[in-house]
Amino acid sequence: MVSTDVFFSDLESRWNAGLLDTTKYQKKNGLFYYKGRILINPSASLTQLLLSEHHDTPVGGHSGYEKTYQRLNRVVYWQGMKNSVKKYIRECDICQRSKYETTRPAGLLQPLPIPEHVWEDISMDFIEGLPKSWGKSVIFVIVDRLTKFAHFLPLSHPYTARTVAATFLDKFTVYMECLKA
User: Fold this and answer.
1) Is 143 in contact with 122 (CB distance < 8 Å)?
2) Which fold does the domain 122-180 belong to in CATH?
C-alpha cells in the first residue's frame, strides 16, 4: 500500500531504517501504535471526528477535559492530543452555555466601619509602571481613612514587604510622635 500521507510516509521510512524506539512504537497489520495506542496524524481531520465522538455523543456526555482525554487516551494517540482536547472543549458551544459556577456568589457589599481617630485605619496602594525619576519608578500611596489625607512616597523596583515597612516607618515615626503629643 502506497501512502500519500506525509506524516506516515516519514514514519514508515524511519521505521524501515530502524530509527524508531521499538519500546514506544510498534507496527501491526499496517497500523502504527505508540505505547499500545493507535497512532494518528495530528493534522488529520480524523482527530476532530475522534474528539467529537468521545465528547459530543451520549457516551461522551460533554464531560470535561480530564474524562474526555482519558477516554481518548485509552485507544489513540497523536502529538499534541492534550492541547487538542483542551481547545475542543473550550470551543464547545454546549459546554460553554451550560457550564456552572463552582463558587458561591459574593453577596452584598458591606461598608467598612468609620474610624474614630486619625491614623487608626489607613489604606495603602502602589502606583507602578511609571518612568524612572531619581531612580524611583513606584509611588507608595498611604491614605488615612478618617481624614482622607494622602501621602505619596517614592519607591524603586524591586521592593519587598521589608522595604515598604521600613519606608513607612521612616516617614511616619516623627508624624506619629507629633500626634501623640
Assistant:
1) yes
2) Nucleotidyltransferase; domain 5 (3.30.420)
